[in-house]
């Protein structure tokens, strides 16, 4: 059964005609530059949650190290990632049509909702966005990081502290404490990512009437926040793009010592099987294809289909002028008089 359109479809160009330059660009964007735009949008999305999250981490670590009062906190880090994830979903997802998370891209490939070629493109974009965000934060905090690094070298503590959760490199890359048991960290990572995956799949479920599309980004963002507040102290990555992009940034700045050892594999890879397991758990246990789709999700589906049909039919090639439409209407009314 197909969705019945109960509301008129109104395109932005019908109400607010774009300038000629923008109209020409949208013509090219919908045809030749479509994948490039999606790549940039996906990279921007991972940038938007990495930047505030890592920025909050930088403030907290530098505040503790330099004994600067009220500079950063664990709550600020959780809020940085939570709000960043919500903003990334709201702003970038409509354009990228991606996942902002390599684990969910792989899950979509397995569920045959995304091609392997497009999935590879999205994963590269995700890591690039995180990498750029981490490099920018390093440059912005350079005046605070440099004296800390110099101080560690002067005290002979560089090798012992630098590449730990308490060291300056811990701003960009994720590290485990030297005495930590990696088995417990793996368990912590898997359970947290499993939890997040269930929340995300539930948020995108069109039959979930308790989570309309306007609420979904904030629910997903908060799922990251509560995991950070409760379990980041044990060791938590939750997103391969954030981990790999940040680690490459640390390697670019400080060399191979910033690699992270065996923990690097846990941080980068554990969330992938955990996400797949969480997604399948929702599909087989909590989901139900016999349920009806909510009205809010119907509107989203109808709008997406109308947008795709507009592009396929070449509707973006010729935007009618609103003034011209009004003038034609006025002329018709004058003719009647």
TrEMBL record:
Subcellular location: Membrane
Stored SUPFAM superfamilies: Aquaporin-like
Keywords, sorted A to Z: Membrane, Repeat, Transmembrane, Transmembrane helix, Transport
Transmembrane feature ranges: 33-51, 71-93, 120-140, 184-204, 216-238
Topology of this chain in the membrane: Multi-pass membrane protein
CC per GO annotation: plasma membrane
GO molecular function terms listed in the Swiss-Prot or TrEMBL record: glycerol channel activity; water channel activity
Keyword Coiled coil: no
Pfam families per UniProt: MIP
Stored PANTHER family: AQUAPORIN 3 (PTHR43829:SF14), AQUAPORIN OR AQUAGLYCEROPORIN RELATED (PTHR43829)
Family: Belongs to the MIP/aquaporin (TC 1.A.8) family.
Name under which the protein is recorded: Aquaporin-like protein
Gene source species: Sparassis crispa
Lineage: Eukaryota, Fungi, Dikarya, Basidiomycota, Agaricomycotina
